[in-house]
Amino acid sequence: MSTIISATPSARTEAQPLPQADPGVLVIFGASGDLTRRKLLPAVFDLSSQGCNVSGLDIVGVGLPEMTDNDFKAAMRQSVEISNGARTFSEENWQKFAGRLSYLSGDLADPQTYQALARRLEEMRQAGASGNHLFYLSVPASIAPKVIQGLGEAGLNKNENGWARIVVEKPFGRDLESARALNKTVLSVFEESSVYRIDHYLGKETVQNILMFRFGNSLFEPLWNRNFIDYVEITAAEPLGVENRSKFYEETGALRDMVANHLLQLLSLTAMEPPFSLDADAVREQKVQVLKAIRPMNIEDVAARTVRGQYGPGVLEGNLVRGYRQEPGVAEDSTSETFVALELRVENWRWSGVPFYIRTGKRLASHLTEIRVHFKPTPEALFVSGQNRQPEPNIISIRIQPDEGISISFGAKRPGLGMNGITVTADFTYRDAFGMNTPVAYETLLLDVMMGDATLFTRGDEVEAEWRIITPIEQAWAQLPRPQFPNYAAGSEGPEIANALMWGERRWNHLRPQR
User: Fewer Cβ atoms within 10 Å of its own Cβ: the N or the C terminal residue of the chain?
Assistant: First the structure.
């Protein structure tokens, strides 16, 4: 049973002032790609329509296909109109927005592309556009160094007429060595303060709310340590397969795709110490300290504390679906993992002895991303008598998606004669409490870049600290016997062996099948 926690009437109705961003020119490299169509343009359109001062934002798409400005506008309109991220679409809003779109065709490996871009930006500035330049790299990781170097050679990293910032999409490298090399490349061209390494999970409302929940409530922070917490469980499950990303997944796998950034970010926010302020460097410094406190695994640790899986054929929502090896573009004997579960330990004073269990996978039974903090049971079973059971230990669940919100389970007396205990849940969701959907992650992050706020972005040493954890696992897997793939059916909760990571009364949260 549960009770709904809602915001006060004033919180539901009080208009919040819209944040104001500087005008500028957004240059999207890889503008004809999937990310631009599905995420970036809908987010920028929505911000513009809401009046976050990005009406002063011009957009230049850069890509290899030959297109006129009108071709580009038509393609983007089609994508924005059907996108769930563009919640304010109307003909009037689109016409205002489309007037600020233009396109530049060019090979990103050709230095002449960047010279042409420099001329285009100067022409726009002379015509009244802003001198602030934001470069967004919506390109594969292998192309990113060429774009960064091209910008430097064209002098676009320096800007006498405003600021110049660069956004780099994940994955930021594929191991510690490549991450260091990419950091070296980008920092040879841009200052660290101008580099925004983006992880869209950090733009989700509930992820940001972790800081408020932990440090804005004296009810929780005193209990947030090894004395009261038994274990922490972080899950990112989805029923989708690899879709059109088979080439990417064959090279990357679930560990690099999800754990190396998204899930380690969730772990670091859950485990970090209170920052002295909400300044970007103060927050990121505490996250880095958590990552540094996770001892890299040796090969014996990896064998005992990690599980990898690959989905086979199965049933989802009543439909038969194919296995990973039957997906287009996937090798018949592929050993790429589509599921990962592992146990990590944060070896510091607050968390010593508390295991952090992480799992992520494709083609699982349901769509769920959440952090579950499991508290220790009470020391005495006061309410056990006859057939009555002690209420379950308390759990705080922070749901990232879907139905973003927070729930707290606790024991209560069941109505009636006798002292009969029952576990109840207090549940808060953004939709029920505030009568609105939360902002799309890319809206939040793009607005932050234009405002110069790097709090929700990853610092260079933070990226390297993540890879210090991930790279030894990849190296150990290369030496250990390979699992017999596929080892879980589509529509299941993953490989059964993942349950063996937990011991005693510990259990993964059940993934309820999609209806």
Answer: C
Residue 262 known to be catalytic:
yes
**C-alpha span between 27 and 125 (Å, rounded):** 14
Residue 71 to residues 61, 139, 245, 418, Cα–Cα distance (Å): 12, 21, 26, 73
Kind and range of the H or E run holding 397: strand 395-401
Structure tokens at 11: 């919180």
Rounded CA separation 489/339 (Å): 11
Contact 101, 73 (CB under 8 A): yes
Catalytic residue among 262, 367, 374, 510: 262
Instruction: Determine the Cα–Cα distance for residues 267 and 263; give it in Å rounded to an integer.
Output: 6
pLDDT digits (tens, 9 = 90+) for 154-188: 999 988 888 999 999 887 888 999 999 999 999 99
Categorize the per-residue pLDDT at 134 as very low, low, confident or very high, splitting at 50, 70 and 90. Answer: very high
State residue 357 phi and psi, 5-degree precision. -100, 130
Residue type, 408: I
Pairing of strands 57-63, 101-105: parallel
Helix and strand element counts for the chain (H, E): 16, 19
CA distance 256 to 81: 32
Nearest one of 171, 176, 359 to 263, comparing CA atoms = 359
Give 394-399 contacts, CB < 8 A, sequence gap 24+.
396/220, 396/372, 397/370, 397/371, 397/372, 397/373, 397/509, 398/206, 398/209, 398/210, 398/213, 398/370, 398/371, 398/372, 398/373, 399/206, 399/368, 399/369, 399/370, 399/429
496 vs 308: CA distance, rounded Å = 11
Using N-to-C axis directions, what is the helix angle for 41-50 and 91-98, rounded to 10°?
110
Q: Which of 337, 204, 201 is nearest to 262 (CA)?
A: 201
